[in-house]
Prior knowledge:
Blueprint: H1 15-29, H2 37-70
Amino acid sequence: NVPQFLKIAPEKAEPLVRQSQAFLRSVATREQPRVSGAQVRGTLETALRIRAEMETHAGIIEKTSAGHAKQ
């Protein structure tokens, strides 16, 4: 019994443009946005933590690589 998956074609649009358009549409129509401000804030906090960890890791790798180059 093999699960079936639908193929979804990605939309060719800039994500930030689409996000801005959705926000403006919510303001204009006074409809509830698809994503709440709290959800957006949580996503941004997660993205910033990931970025900080990546920068920390890159610094560790750079120091390790520099130490090996001196030998």
